[in-house]
Fold this protein.
Amino acid sequence: MIRPPKLPMRIVQILILVVMGFIALYPVWFAVLAAGRKGDSLYTFKLVGMFIPIEWTWDNFIRLFTQQPFWTWVANSFKVATITVVFAMVVVTSAAFAFSRFRFAGRNFGLTLMLGLQAYPGLLSLSAITMILTAIGLYGKHAGLILAYTTGMLVFATWNLKGYFDTIPLDLEEAGMIDGCGPVQSFFLIALPLARPALAITALLAFLSGWSDYVLASSIVPAPDTMKLAVPGLYGLSQSISVPWGMFAAGFCIVVIPTIILFLYLQRYLEAGLTLGGVKG
């Protein structure tokens, strides 16, 4: 039986949680405050204004919506992120299920090769990715960006899903086949529904790769403004002399909303999807 901590220890634990929560949440709140300040000031000389809004204006949001193609950037990001999720889920689920259930020549070599590719820093392959997309005519297009995002997350997602499929008893699929299910039906009707936690974390990571990335998005689709994604578009607001922090913060407040909603919706799957898929295999 585990004894409950004594009162002094409880107080220390609560204080630690409060401090860590403040450290995690204050940057987001700081951006909200900056979005509501007049002009493009990032800070205020009033100490109270660094924690609570002592003045509020919607000018930064209005300027962002009227002077910049912000909603075009958001639409581009949503399109790229959504298509990336669809392509990644189709490829990853098939590959992970094959590595988990079938024994074929080159299986162990393929798994080891993917681990080696995962250890390679992704930024070092940026120039190679750009050259390949240029050669096949996809540089500067959203299709090339979707292809880069999809292939970039295949290794981790395949290993994680493969580990989760390993935790699903094969007897369930065999029982389904006895009742008349074919191999494809058992995959769609038995294996995939049971792997919902791992599928959720895979879909979340695929969406975030297309929604919040800057490096690949700014390198593969550098121009024009109507083709940019939200994060590179917001970064492009900065000039050599001044940075419109107000508009930048206002854009951050809008862009972060889909991520928060997605996390809140999928949070019940996140822990199981990462832990079970990470320890089996």
Observations:
- The two ends are 33 Å apart (CA to CA).
- Residues 38 and 257 are 22 Å apart (CA to CA).
- Confidence is low (pLDDT under 50) at residues 277-281.
- The longest helix spans residues 245-279.
